[in-house]
Amino acid sequence: MPEVSLADMPGLVGTVVGVSDWITVPQSMINMFADTTLDHQFIHVDEERARTESPFGGTIAHGFLTLSLLSAMNFDCVPKIREQTMGLNYGFDRIRFMSPVRPGARIRGHFKLADTRFRGAGMLMTTYDVSVEIENEKKPAMTATWITIVQFDPKDRPETV
Q: Which residue numbers delimit the MaoC-like domain (predicted)?
């Protein structure tokens, strides 16, 4: 995994900074997510009922499961910032679930750095335009605008910002 410095970040705005490895989403993962979140809606966990009563022809992953996998995708492919002491999830400006993720599908994240902004002495706010691709599908599973905060020692703040 390549590393970048805080000073490099503004120059990366507008570029795709990473594409994650593929993650397979088996029915067992969907079932465990349903158990964890207490969301047992039939379209996620009842294969027979979903096959006959849903417009999807079978079960599908929770949109929030796809969203939650962004952390693993990010960790897999987004360059590490040398000076970072901690990273925080600040939130999302926009999330759209575009296509269902079916059991057994493979998905991966594409991360485009949309903006960076230094805040205070020891924080960098980063905004990523993220798209989650489904293997062999034209339409993405999800798109999002994700905001994170990189914390660093104020002594490491680039003088040019």
A: 13-119
Given a contact cutoff of 8 angstroms between Cβ atoms, the answer to whether 47 and 59 are in contact is: yes
Q: pLDDT tens for residues 11-70?
A: 999 999 999 999 999 999 999 999 999 999 999 999 999 999 999 999 999 999 999 999
Give tens-digit pLDDT for 100-126.
Answer: 999 999 999 999 999 999 998 999 999
pTM, two decimals, is 0.94
Q: 3-25+61-156: CATH homologous superfamily? A: Hotdog Thioesterase (3.10.129.10)
The enclosing H or E element of 150 equals strand 142-152
> Which residue type sits at 29?
M
Per residue in 127-159, pLDDT (tens digit) is: 999 999 999 999 999 999 999 999 999 999 998
Question: What residue spans define the domains of the chain?
Answer: 3-25+61-156
Contact 86, 156 (CB under 8 A): no
Instruction: State how beta strands 23-25 and 123-134 pair.
Output: unpaired
Neighbours of 122 (CB within 10 A): 18
Instruction: Please name the amino acid found at residue 42.
Output: F
- Note whether 99 and 141 are within 8 A (CB): yes
Determine which helix (DSSP H) or strand (DSSP E) holds 91, and give its type and residue range: strand 84-97
